[in-house]
Amino acid sequence: MHIGLVGLGKMGNNMRARLRNAGHEVTGYDNNPAVSDVADLAALAAALPSPRVVWVMVPSGKITDSVITELGTVLSDGDLVIDGGNSRFTEDFKHAAELEPKGIGYVDAGVSGGIWGLENGYGLMVGGTKANVEMLMPIFDALRPEGPREEGFVHVGEVGAGHYAKMVHNGIEYALMQAYAEGYELLDTRKDIIKDVTGTFKAWQRGTVVRSWLLELLVQALEQDPEFEDIEGYVEDSGEGRWTIEEAISNAVPVPTISASIFARFVSRQEDSPSMKAVAALRNQFGGHAVKKAED
């Protein structure tokens, strides 16, 4: 199958390589000419056979909007666009509606696997019509991990469902990472008892109920830098965690663990947390607890 791919960053470039390794022909476009196969989106469309399939792998928001709008001017009836970035599911409704009058199909694909996807494959959560998804199965099968299809790929539902599933996936990911991080801090604090923090996490990789790929990655990070001396405790969020919480509020679904994990990220961005100052002041007021004076 011959597919166009827009966006050749870390994930996009690896996806192009994985597809080519599986025997598919990929024409890629990126605004960095050093990695791009063609000069622009018009040239990309011209290079593809009909019906043309273009996978968009660019940052969500205005960049995705502009790419899909421009694709609408260079593609034609019967062609198909896949948004594999981290767009909010509500954006899928807008993009599909924009392309539909031109006869251009639309599929949204939640993609998980990060920089390891080239070797291990990508977990895929897809939204779109049955006909469009079935047409794209050779591409999805090439990208997903080896093994049973249902363990690395799901056609979740209609347009928007793929990114909705990926949003919840990332919300869960936030909470899992926070739990491992809090466990690390507690173990590291009690070095009088715990003599091998890295080894403790490493021993959890097989047989325990907390084993996971995230745990393996944490062990790898600890082996490289056991005290995290080269890392500042500042953590960004890419949007999906916030969207998960907003959806939970809209549907009256309690997600206290996911909520706590994203609020912890906000605390990480404050040099001296105002809320923690307030807690310290209150403890001093009602209980006479000692307050640590701020350094000048």
What is the compact description of this entry?
The protein has 13 helices and seven strands. Helix content is 49%, strand content 12%.
Characterization of the model:
The protein has 296 residues and is an alpha/beta fold. It folds into two domains: 157 residues, NAD(P)-binding Rossmann-like Domain (Rossmann fold, 3-Layer(aba) Sandwich); 103 residues, N-(1-d-carboxylethyl)-l-norvaline Dehydrogenase, domain 2, CATH 1.10.1040. 49% of the residues lie in helices and 12% in strands. It contains 13 helices and seven strands. A seven-stranded mixed β-sheet has the order 2-1-3-4-5-6-7, sandwiched between helices. Helix 4 links the parallel strand 4 and strand 5. Helix 8 crosses helix 11, helix 8 packs across helix 12 and helix 9 runs antiparallel to helix 10. It is elongated and about 75 Å long. It holds the Pfam family 6PGD. Keywords: Gluconate utilization, Oxidoreductase. This is 6-phosphogluconate dehydrogenase. One of its GO terms (molecular function) is phosphogluconate dehydrogenase (decarboxylating) activity. It comes from Agreia bicolorata.
List keywords for this structure.
296 residues; alpha/beta; Rossmann fold; N-(1-d-carboxylethyl)-l-norvaline Dehydrogenase, domain 2; 2 domains; 7-stranded mixed sheet; 7 strands; 12% strand
